[in-house]
Design a protein that fits this description.
Number of helices: 3
Domain HIT: 10-117
GO molecular function: catalytic activity
Pfam families: HIT
Order of helices and strands: HEEEHEEH
Oligomer: single chain
Active site: 104
Helix content: 25-40%
Bound molecules: adenosine monophosphate
CATH topology: HIT family, subunit A
InterPro entries: HINT, Histidine_triad_HIT, HIT-like, HIT-like_sf
Length: 145
């Protein structure tokens, strides 16, 4: 498993503000945004800001921050989309399905009557993605109130 960090990976560019994302949450250690090729409606990614390729490279503090944000955002996704279930996923290495070499956690709502769409396959309509982000942001706001 190659742990050499590529500073030009797509999430590094998002973290530097060089390319846009549908951000739903940010704090000092983490950011969360909608997956651009969602496997289901509400598919959200949590990305630690630390420059780490995978879980093994992430510091303990980074891992703690990541799981804290994952729980917080997953609660909001659950409230916003009311799925039948919700998977949390994290892939290490291409052989495990990792396509972006910056550690991240997937929050994937699961609907009993739908099969998951392909992993990193079809781009979502940008307006729909924005609307989904707004639903998660509203739920986060309610939870903080
Ligand atoms: P993984 O395969 O676990 O590395 O997951 C990477 C995820 O990032 C996939 O689900 C992709 O759909 C998603 N993705 C790739 N590029 C972007 C982007 N620019 N904005 C948001 N999500 C992205």
């Amino acid at each position: 498993m190659n742990s050499q960090y590529d500073t030009n990976n797509v999430f590094a560019k998002i973290l530097r503000g060089e390319i846009p994302c549908n951000k739903v949450y940010e704090d000092a250690e983490t950011i969360a945004f909608m997956d651009i090729m969602p496997q289901s409606d509400g598919h959200t990614l949590v990305v630690p800001k630390e420059a780490a390729v995978n879980l093994f490279d992430l510091s303990e503090a980074g891992a703690e921050a990541a799981i804290r944000t994952t729980q917080r955002v997953a609660r909001a996704v659950r409230q916003a989309f009311n799925p039948d279930g919700l998977s949390i996923g994290q892939f290490n290495g291409a052989a495990a399905g990792q396509t972006v070499p910056h550690v991240h956690f997937h929050i994937v709502p699961r609907y009993s009557d739908q099969t998951l769409r392909g992993h990193a396959r079809d781009m979502q309509n940008p307006d729909l993605l924005k609307a989904h982000a707004e639903r998660v942001i509203a739920a986060l706001r309610e939870q903080a109130a």
